[in-house]
C-alpha cells in the first residue's frame, strides 16, 4: 500500500514534470533552465535533481512511459500473430490507451505538444533517435525470443524492426509538419502508413506499368 510520503513524492515529481513540459513548449527547451522549472513548483534545484538527472531526462519522461507500454503490448500479443502484425497492433493499442498511459502525470495534449517540440529541437531530436535505436534493439530481441530465433544470427527480427521504425519516423515527421495535431490524426497516420508497408516494398508504384 502506498504511503503518504510516497504519494507526496509522486505529486512533487508530477508537478516538476508538468512544469518542465509547459516551459519547454512555451518558451523553448534551450531557453528553459532547471532553476525556472523548480521555481515554478516552489521547490529547490536540489529537489529537481532528486527526481530527474537533468532537463533531457524530464523532456523524455512521458515518452519513456509510452515506450514501456509499447514494449509490454508487444510482449502481450498472441503468439499466432506474425511479427509485423504484432508490432502494428501493439503500436495502435498504445495510441488507443495513450490517455490512460500518460494522464496520471500530464495532460495528453501537453504530451503531444512536447512530441512535436522534440522533432523541431535538434538536441532533443538527436537524443530521440538515439533512444529510439535502443528501444528498437529491445523489440528486435523480444521478437526473436517470441519467434524462437537467434537475433544475432537471424537478421529478420532487426530487419522487421528497422522497417517498422522507419514507418514510425515517417509518421512522426508528417504529423509534426502537418496542420492537424490531434491524437486521432497521428493514430490514423500510423495505421495508414503501416498498411502501406507491403505495397511499398513489394508492389509496383508506377501506374503505367499496368498498361
Number of strands: 0
Percent of residues in β-strands: under 5%
Helix content: over 70%
Number of helices: 12
Describe the structure in your own words.
By secondary structure, this protein is mostly helical. The protein is built from twelve helices and no strands. It has helices at residues 4-27, 34-41, 45-51, 55-59, 61-76, 83-96, 98-102, 108-120, 122-147, 156-177, 183-195, 197-202. Helix 6 packs parallel to helix 10 (156-177), helix 6 runs antiparallel to helix 11 and helix 8 (108-120) crosses helix 9. It is globular and about 60 Å long. 23% of the residues are buried.
List keywords for this structure.
211 residues; mainly alpha; globular
Task: Provide the fold topology.
Blueprint (H helix, E strand, L loop, with lengths): L3 H24 L6 H8 L3 H7 L3 H5 L1 H16 L6 H14 L1 H5 L5 H13 L1 H26 L8 H22 L5 H13 L1 H6 L9
Helix pairs in contact: 1-2, 1-8, 5-6, 5-9, 6-10, 6-11, 8-9, 8-10, 9-10, 10-11
In brief, what are we looking at here?
It is built from 12 helices and no strands. It is mostly helical.
Amino acid at each position: 500500500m502506498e504511503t503518504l510520503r510516497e504519494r507526496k513524492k509522486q505529486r512533487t515529481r508530477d508537478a516538476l514534470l508538468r512544469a518542465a513540459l509547459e516551459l519547454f513548449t512555451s518558451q523553448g527547451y534551450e531557453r528553459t533552465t532547471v532553476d525556472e522549472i523548480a521555481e515554478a513548483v516552489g521547490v529547490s534545484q536540489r529537489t529537481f535533481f532528486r527526481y530527474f538527472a537533468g532537463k533531457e531526462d524530464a523532456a523524455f519522461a512521458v515518452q519513456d512511459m509510452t515506450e514501456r507500454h509499447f514494449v509490454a503490448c508487444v510482449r502481450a500479443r498472441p503468439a499466432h500473430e506474425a511479427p509485423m502484425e504484432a508490432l502494428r497492433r501493439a503500436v495502435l493499442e498504445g495510441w488507443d490507451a495513450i490517455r490512460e498511459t500518460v494522464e496520471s502525470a500530464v495532460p495528453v495534449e501537453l504530451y503531444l505538444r512536447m512530441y512535436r517540440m522534440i522533432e523541431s529541437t535538434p538536441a532533443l531530436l538527436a537524443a530521440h533517435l538515439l533512444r529510439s535505436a535502443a528501444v528498437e534493439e529491445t523489440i528486435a530481441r523480444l521478437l526473436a525470443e517470441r519467434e524462437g530465433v537467434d537475433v544475432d544470427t537471424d537478421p529478420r527480427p532487426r530487419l522487421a524492426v528497422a522497417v517498422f521504425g522507419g514507418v514510425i519516423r515517417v509518421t512522426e515527421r508528417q504529423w509534426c509538419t502537418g496542420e492537424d495535431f490531434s491524437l486521432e490524426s497521428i493514430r490514423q497516420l500510423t495505421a495508414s502508413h503501416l498498411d502501406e508497408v507491403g505495397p511499398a516494398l513489394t508492389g509496383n508504384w508506377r501506374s503505367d506499368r499496368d498498361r
